[in-house]
Amino acid sequence: MSSVQTKSDRIPAAERRELILDAATQVFGELGYAGATTDRVARAAGISQPYVVRMFGTKEQLFIEVLERSTAQILATFDAEIAAYDAASPDDRTGYGQSLQARLGGAYTRLVQTHRGILLALMQGFLLGHDSGIGPVARECFMRVYDRLRDVMDAQGTMDFMAQGMLINTLIASGLTARVRTDSKVGELFECAFGDKAKLVVASVEGD
């Protein structure tokens, strides 16, 4: 038995599952659905490829679980921010700092700043909207986010918020962070999208 197999055998199944999904989120996000393989995911997770297949079945099913898990992480982030905002008294909300929409935007920025693979994997899923297996899941994930935001915003506010979020996703996924310091127009765009967190986002993505 290899050392990798021995190590993985010591990890509880639930933890192994999360370990694989963490690795798969990064691999799918970086390589896309077509470029990723279960072998690449297994190596990234430090777990044997046959075990990945036994646990998730096909690459498609693994990708679908990545999309659903990434969506759940975004919704959990929003739910925590909404709960904190709701818990504040009306008088305290001014002191809380910002509108709920601004607070949610900040929470989303922090999430994608520290977990870039989430947004990249979701973007890959949206690109596969034509796929008969993945497309319906990607659309459902998108609408789950819309529905949750619609609970706390009107239709126009929800559309504006999601449009801003997709801009943030595109800026990071496109690799434009590499040009922020050398192209004033790119820097201006990042400041408009991220506000005072622009430098932190660029530093985290570029590994500074």
Tell me what you see in this structure.
The protein has a domain at 59-174. Helix content is 79%, strand content 0%. It contains 12 helices and no strands. It has helices at residues 3-9, 13-35, 38-45, 49-56, 59-87, 90-96, 100-114, 116-127, 135-150, 155-173, 184-194, 198-206. Helix 7 packs parallel to helix 12 (198-206) and helix 8 (116-127) crosses helix 9. It is globular, with a radius of gyration of 19 Å. Pfam families: TetR_N. Keywords: DNA-binding.
Keywords, please?
TetR/AcrR family transcriptional regulator, 12 helices, DNA-binding transcription factor activity, disordered N terminus, mainly alpha, 208 residues, Homeodomain-like_sf
Give me a quick take on this structure.
The chain has helices spanning 3-9, 13-35, 38-45, 49-56, 59-87, 90-96, 100-114, 116-127, 135-150, 155-173, 184-194, 198-206. The chain is mostly helical and 208 residues long.
SSE string, helices as H and strands as E:
HHHHHHHHHHHH
Helix content: over 70%
Mean pLDDT: 87
Q: Which geometry do the CA atoms define?
A: globular
* Count, helices: 12
Main beta sheet: none
Oligomer: single chain
> Could you name the ranges where pLDDT drops below 50 across 5 or more consecutive residues?
1-7
What class do helices, strands and sheet pairing give? mainly alpha
Number of strands: 0
* N-C termini distance: 39 Å
Strand content: under 5%
Q: Rg to the nearest angstrom?
A: 19 Å
Layout of secondary structure:
Layout: H1 3-9, H2 13-35, H3 38-45, H4 49-56, H5 59-87, H6 90-96, H7 100-114, H8 116-127, H9 135-150, H10 155-173, H11 184-194, H12 198-206
Pfam families: TetR_N
Keywords: DNA-binding
Protein name: TetR/AcrR family transcriptional regulator
